[in-house]
């Protein structure tokens, strides 16, 4: 029986990696300097998963674009998560700046052509 492998879009991996960056960056404050076990484990797990998915996306996407999009997702998502879950406030000027980052992320996506359309599953060949 032939085996099939799941393939992933490098952009989809990058978005999930960015979302996991938001998780670990938001949880980092809750670790209290890595003195609280539960938040520390969540933070470290999200960090590892985020970096792993970023590295997989970089197989087919340029490193600079991948990193900029990953950081951009975290830079926009973390203040939003902090506002929603931690009660931190965002000023109108800060929201405007976050919107400019979003425009930059969209611009990078629109102007970047990946080396191929999909990434093989773990264990597959690129």
Rg from alpha-carbon coordinates: 17 Å
Number of helical segments? 4
Question: How many structural units, i.e. domains?
Answer: 1
Kindly estimate the percentage of residues that lie in beta strands according to DSSP: under 5%
Which secondary-structure class do the elements indicate?
mainly alpha
Q: Which overall shape is indicated by the principal axes computed on the Cα atoms?
A: flat
* Average of pLDDT: 88
What is the spatial order of strands in the main beta sheet? 1-2
Q: Which stretches are low in confidence, meaning pLDDT under 50 for 5 or more residues running?
A: 1-5
- Which series of helices and strands comes N to C? EHHHHE
**How many strands?**
2
Helix content: 55-70%
The main sheet comes to: 2 strands, antiparallel
Give the N-to-C terminal Cα separation: 23 Å
Question: Care to give the gist of this entry?
Answer:
The protein is mainly alpha-helical and 126 residues long. It has helices at residues 10-28, 37-57, 63-85, 92-111; strands spanning 7-8, 119-120. Mean pLDDT is 88; it is low at 1-5.
């Amino acid at each position: 029986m032939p085996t099939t492998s799941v393939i992933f879009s490098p952009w989809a991996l990058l978005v999930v990696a960015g979302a996991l960056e938001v998780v670990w960056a938001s949880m980092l404050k809750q670790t209290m300097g890595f003195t609280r076990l539960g938040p520390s484990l969540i933070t470290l797990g999200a960090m590892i998963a985020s970096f792993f998915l970023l590295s997989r996306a970089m197989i087919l996407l340029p490193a600079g674009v991948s990193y900029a999009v990953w950081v951009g997702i975290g830079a926009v998502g973390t203040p939003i998560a902090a506002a929603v879950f931690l009660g931190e406030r965002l000023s109108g000027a800060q929201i405007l700046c976050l919107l400019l980052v979003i425009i930059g992320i969209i611009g990078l996506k629109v102007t970047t052509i990946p080396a191929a359309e999909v990434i093989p599953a773990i264990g597959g060949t690129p």
